[in-house]
Design goal:
Elements lengths: L4 H9 L1 H13 L33 E7 L8 E11 L5 E11 L11 E5 L11 H6 L7 H15 L3 E5 L11 H16 L12 E6 L1 H16 L5 E7 L5 H8 L5 H14 L11 H9 L5 H7 L18 H8 L12 E6 L7 H13 L4 E6 L3 H21 L8 E3 L1
Parallel strand pairs: 4-5, 4-6, 6-7, 7-8, 8-9, 9-10
Antiparallel strand pairs: 1-2, 2-3, 3-5
Helix pairs in contact: 2-4, 5-6, 7-8, 8-10
Length: 413
């Protein structure tokens, strides 16, 4: 899940924008350019798939353009890459990722590292995707990207290059594990062959994500062995991990975060069109399925505060119905053990993603002999943990990029 609405508003008023502005100034701002706002992805020909898409291999770069991050004249290089990936039905699709490289030199051993950073996209529409925000989009759809930008800039200040994929793809498939994981891996494939960013196939690779971004990051970790075995991922950092999707939805239902329950329900219907889950909706639910088909998570949180999913269903207790549970189960993490070191963290007081699901996932990974360093955080809430524990996640990846060995096994604190 992304940053809850109340937290997003407070950050946009204060801390996150101040921190982001300070980091942007550190990277350097040139003269103003007066560039117009970018066209939304649905109307931007850059996002359209080429007619010969199927002839390209996964990770192949289909199109590229240089942009200015947030439309600002920064002394850094930013590109958008359109690349070929593979959807959950094994059909080729075209996705977009943003590649960023600051002027800071890489002073560590070997080639410049590449970090795949998964922003919590949490949406049903492409205008909510990170690429639109990073290109200079201006409406509320960009809030999640703005809030997570300080973490991206921290990586750039370390001399790393960063790729930020629109991992939900052109259909904006929230909580689609295979779709998201493949898009992350193919985004890495595309970025590491993009020499203008100072990268090469010798660049060590890491991945980072929190909340909805952790979902995509860990699905990529689980799929790497079979889908992208040539990618030597040195380490993964992920926090606020969305495990036990059905419980997350029931936990949010009827409360301040009820829009999250709506997002999950609408997304699972999109992800499993043959499941007959949509048939459980009443007239109001069918209307929402249409009217919210391009909504961003932050908009759903605003519109559906304290509502119940059952208000949109013909069947009572829809979030416990076998069809809903089956659709959620197909997207759960833990079916395959990642084969690279993991740094995982979760707040014990997380009010959005209950910690019990994280603990169950952790046990599955540990039982499968995955190398895991896990931390239960005492930070307050879902968002407090995101801020407090990010330095540990970055430090873990810095050690992996430096070639420091990690003791195999599962250690939990």
């Amino acid at each position: 899940m992304g940053i809850p609405l109340v937290f997003a508003r407070s950050l946009l008023r204060g801390g996150a924008l101040v921190g982001t502005a300070a980091l942007l100034l550190t990277l350097g701002v040139g003269a103003a350019t007066g560039r117009p706002d970018p066209v939304q992805p649905a109307d931007d020909p850059f996002y359209s798939a080429p007619t010969d898409l199927a002839q390209h291999s996964p990770g192949a770069i289909l199109n590229r353009r240089e942009i200015s991050m947030f439309g600002l004249p920064l002394r850094m290089s930013t590109w958008q890459l359109q690349y070929r990936t593979t959807g959950p039905d094994d059909q080729p699709i075209a996705a977009v990722a943003t590649v960023l490289s600051a002027a800071m030199p890489w002073t560590g051993p070997g080639a410049r590292p590449l970090l795949s950073y998964q922003i919590a996209e949490d949406s049903l529409g492409t205008r909510c995707a990170p690429s639109f925000a990073l290109h200079g989009g201006r409406d509320s759809a960009i809030s999640s990207t703005v809030i997570e930008t300080p973490f991206v800039l921290d990586a750039l200040r370390r001399g790393w290059a960063v790729v930020v994929p629109d991992y939900e793809g052109p259909e904006s498939r929230f909580f689609d594990g295979v779709n998201s994981g493949r898009a992350v891996l193919d985004g890495i494939r595309a970025a590491r062959t993009f020499t203008p960013a100072g990268l090469s196939t010798a660049s060590p690779i890491g991945a980072f994500g929190y909340s909805g971004g952790a979902f995509a990051t860990l699905w990529a970790a689980q799929l790497r062995r079979t889908y992208a075995p040539e990618l030597p991922i040195a380490g993964i950092s992920a926090g606020g991990v969305p495990a036990d999707i059905a419980t997350i939805a029931r936990n949010a239902d009827g409360g301040a975060q009820a829009g999250l329950s709506m997002l999950i329900m609408l997304a699972l219907i999109r992800n499993a069109p043959g499941s007959e889950l949509a048939a459980l909706l009443n007239e109001r639910g069918r209307a929402a399925l249409t009217s919210e088909s391009t909504a961003c998570g932050i908009e759903l949180l605003s519109r559906y505060t304290t509502t119940h999913v059952d208000d949109f269903a013909k069947t009572p207790e829809l979030l416990s119905h076998p069809l809903f549970l089956a659709a959620a189960r197909r997207q759960e993490l833990g079916g395959t053990a990642p084969d690279m070191p993991l740094y995982l963290y979760h707040g014990t007081s997380d009010e959005v993603v209950p910690v019990a699901g994280f603990d169950a996932l952790l046990h599955r990974y540990c039982d499968a002999k995955t190398t895991v360093l896990a931390r239960h955080s005492s930070a307050v809430g879902h968002n407090g943990t995101a801020i407090a524990e990010a330095p540990g996640g970055m430090a873990f990846l810095a050690d992996r990029f430096a070639g420091e060995a990690i003791e195999p096994g599962c250690r939990v604190s």
